[in-house]
Write a structure and sequence with these properties.
Fumarase C, Chain A, domain 2; 58% helix; 3 domains; Ribonucleotide Reductase Protein R1, domain 1; two-stranded antiparallel ribbon; Fumarase C, Chain B, domain 1; mainly alpha; 474 residues
Amino acid sequence: MTKYRIEKDSLGEKKVPFAAYYGVQTVRAGENFPISGIMPKPVFIIATAMVKKAACAANRNLGLLDKQRASAITRAADEVISGKLHREFIVDVYQAGAGTSHNMNANEVIANRAIELLGDKKGDYSALHPNDHVNMSQSTNDVIPTAMRLAALASSEKLLGSLGGLEKALKRKSREFDRVIKSGRTHLQDAVPIRLGQEFGSYGASVRSSIERINCARGRLKNIGLGGTAVGTGLNTHPSYTKTVIRELGRVSGIKGLRIAPNAFEAIAGMGDFSFFSASLRSAAIELIRIANDLRLLSSGPRTGIGEIILPAVQPGSSIMPGKVNPVMAEMLNMVCFQVVGNDTAVTLAAQAGQLELNVMMPVINYNILESIEILDSSVRAFTERCVSGIKADRKRCKEYFENSAGLAAILNKFIGYEQAAQVAKESIYTGKSIKDIVIGKEILTEKEWKKILEPMRVTQANGDMNGIKNKRS
């Protein structure tokens, strides 16, 4: 049978599991919010403990907290930061507005572990109190947004690494496919030629742009409002607390460039930095959807579709069709990115839902941002390793499409004029003959002229050298 201890808060007494490090307010939150069964992300638990450790150090340095209690709180916070006691964080992500329940969960866990370290029993808050000591100089309203910023900054470092790996893989493919000529397509119709390497180079550039947008948004997350307490005024803090605690926070977290927010009121009430950051994740997801869809399209068939590239076969594609292989890694990435776009919508709605001096929707903003970072990171890593790195070009198919594309007529504009080129293209479509066969058969161009005009590198870059080819426009 579970043994209990009795704890009391302003609403009365509650039974708390005897072995638990959380306390009465966490028990109430657990009873109030049996919503999703989703607990806080480990990175957010760690970030919260970092805030508590930094605040403890600042209070100690300013003479507000005695060394014995400060040492115990620091040791307890360090245990949480190292990954211990995470099972004690039991409050659902859908909880009290502003994250009060999560903040008290952290205060109680750290307090009770610190009490143990002092040689007393859990729940005996006469020795060390969750609010008076662990939460000293703090409010939920400045702790939670600060922990949110730290968690997003820490977890997005890994995401940036995954995106950087994808960028490098795409650039390697760009170099590998640099001399593979193929038909370009606009409106899903044949267009002028392009090199497969140029297509993959554009994908790499898109990923690089996404990285830069995320980095730009990360910079805004380094504006820290810790020290503003409840509404931004800094009530119940030492005059030097804000400067001291943010210096300590940089040391504890290892994150460089943390700075005092230009306006503490805005840092608590406004969620603009988070919506901006979430939007950068959404933007990355949109680019990844486009890339994944292009790879699915270019590999389609392979016999009855475009089939210009071959994706790695990572698993059988059908329970009924033997030999079928599907672009499953690209499909997975699509689904993840759709979720990220949905998460951003939730963040957007929550960011505009704050009133006056506080946005109480911070928990759902935090959860969706961290979820987006986590699934983007793991999906991009898997997509790079199990799809992009193993892509092969069907050079023969690319060449065939290039030679039979009606888009070649556009190249001839300069030499035989638009009207004649249009007639050649129309005849090619109606008869099924290649443009090459028509222009050479009708002696519009010689074989030698055709080869020079259609030299792959020349027709796929600006200002290709066409010297020595006579302009035959009338």
